């Protein structure tokens, strides 16, 4: 038996496919969301007989499979028929009516969008879509700056199904009544996964991403347990990747509980510079110094230190930081001063602190 049996040779890797740990990776099957996918599909079924479909309001906390389930249904739809145009839009990235129209044009493979205004684009979209029918998945819908495009679609695209996805279960009640009364969606809640389900999903990804047998059971169970406690599969994927990288850095052939425990949210920041620009770092620094304060107070500190972003932009970034695991937000619904949010900086914490 060699004393160096557990040392990784140069050029060897613990990963077979690290990309499988990306949040946007689409596994072949989406276990434990069969009923939710059925519900989405049932809203689209009338389109197959040239009737209009139903609309659906999907809500649930971060990292519980809303996006991946909806995308899976769309890709199934695409395989089944050419008669229904599938349109997926991330409204965070495309947050104005004009940008949404550009995305729809791209889904329709319509390229002559240059120098066209919103209304001109919509005339083309309407013409193309009304030949057949369409499904719109509007993900992160609460991040839209305006809803004009939705009104146009509701009024003038005849055979359609709209799936609106958000974390905010109250989003519908805040919606302009002209749109709400036309949308009239059914509701579908995505609840967090049980401990067993979390384990099953992470195990599937582990098999896609890692060389067989490199994960010690104890280490994997720890990841699954953390992801379950945090109620977020995305965090589990993140920890798996970090632990794998750490084990590789140490030239270890196995990923152990020790590697998992050493992962910290701070490493996430350091290893994902792409997701952080100058302004992000500036903002995070101020939040770190004011951790535990109310969002309004932190915004004032940000302005006093020379921050230029408007409050809305500031708030949007805070939401993104929360998703990426930098912050933990505590939303307080009532009180004398109305709704507020307490912001805690998470990046200093080790995983063991959660
Ligand atoms: N049932 C599942 N099967 C396989 N992978 C899953 C499942 N549920 C979640 N995931 C994975 O977990 C990650 C987070 O899922 P997803 O992006 O769909 O969350 P979400 O509910 O849309 O969260 P958010 O509200 O933050 O957008 C993704 O990488 C996704 O592939
Ligand atoms: Mg999502």
Per the CATH scheme, the topology name of the largest domain is Rossmann fold
Summing up helix and strand content along with how strands pair, one would put the structural category as alpha/beta
Largest sheet: 5 strands, parallel
Helix and strand pattern: HEHEHHEHEHEHHHHHHEHHEE
Approximate helicity band: 40-55%
What is the radius of gyration? 23 Å
Instruction: For the record, give the distance between the C-alpha atoms at the N and C termini, rounded to a whole number.
Output: 40 Å
CATH superfamily of the largest domain, please? P-loop containing nucleotide triphosphate hydrolases
Spatial order of the strands in the main sheet? 2-3-4-1-5
| Unreliable stretches | 266-271
The total number of structural domains is 3
Please tally the β strands and state the result: 8
Written account of the structure:
The protein is globular, with a radius of gyration of 23 Å. 33% of the residues are buried. The chain folds into 3 domains: 156 residues, P-loop containing nucleotide triphosphate hydrolases (Rossmann fold, 3-Layer(aba) Sandwich), CATH 3.40.50; 71 residues, Helicase, Ruva Protein, domain 3 (Orthogonal Bundle); 83 residues, Orthogonal Bundle (Arc Repressor Mutant, subunit A). The chain has 354 residues and is of the alpha/beta class. It starts with 33 loop residues before the first helix and ends in a 9-residue tail after the last strand. 45% of the residues lie in helices and 12% in strands. The strands form 2 sheets. It has a 5-stranded parallel beta sheet, with helices on both faces. Adenosine-5'-triphosphate binds next to helix 2 and helix 9.
């Amino acid at each position: 038996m060699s004393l160096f049996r557990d040392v990784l040779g140069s050029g060897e890797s613990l990963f077979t496919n690290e990309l499988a740990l990306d949040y946007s990776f689409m596994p072949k099957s989406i276990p434990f969301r069969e009923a939710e996918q059925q519900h989405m599909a049932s809203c689209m079924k009338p389109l197959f007989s040239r009737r209009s479909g139903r609309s659906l309001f999907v809500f649930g906390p971060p990292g519980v499979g809303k996006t991946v389930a909806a995308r899976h249904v769309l890709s199934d739809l695409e395989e089944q028929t050419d008669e229904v145009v599938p349109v997926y839009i991330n409204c965070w990235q495309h947050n104005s009516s004009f940008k949404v129209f550009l995305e729809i044009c791209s889904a329709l493979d319509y390229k002559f969008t240059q120098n066209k205004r919103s209304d001109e684009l919509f005339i083309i979209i309407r013409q193309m879509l009304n030949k057949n029918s369409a499904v719109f998945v509007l993900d992160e819908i609460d991040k839209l700056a305006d809803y004009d495009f939705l009104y146009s679609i509701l009024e003038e695209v005849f055979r359609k199904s709209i799936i609106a996805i958000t974390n905010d279960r109250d989003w519908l009640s805040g919606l302009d009544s002209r749109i709400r009364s036309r949308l009239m969606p059914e509701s579908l809640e995505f609840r967090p996964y049980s401990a067993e389900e979390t384990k099953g999903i992470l195990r599937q990804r582990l098999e896609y991403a890692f060389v067989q047998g490199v994960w010690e059971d104890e280490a994997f169970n720890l990841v699954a347990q953390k992801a379950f406690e945090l109620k977020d599969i995305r965090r589990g994927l993140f920890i798996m990747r970090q632990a794998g990288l750490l084990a590789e850095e140490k030239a270890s052939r196995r990923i152990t509980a020790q590697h998992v425990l050493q992962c910290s949210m701070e490493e996430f920041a350091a290893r994902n510079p792409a997701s952080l620009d100058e302004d992000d770092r500036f903002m995070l620094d101020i939040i770190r110094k004011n951790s535990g304060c109310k969002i309004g107070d932190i915004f004032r500190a940000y302005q006093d230190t020379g921050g230029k972003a408007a409050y809305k932009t500031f708030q949007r970034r805070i939401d993104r930081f929360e998703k990426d695991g930098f912050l933990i937000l505590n939303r307080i619904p009532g009180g004398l001063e109305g709704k507020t949010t307490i912001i805690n900086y998470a990046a200093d914490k080790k995983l063991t602190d959660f």
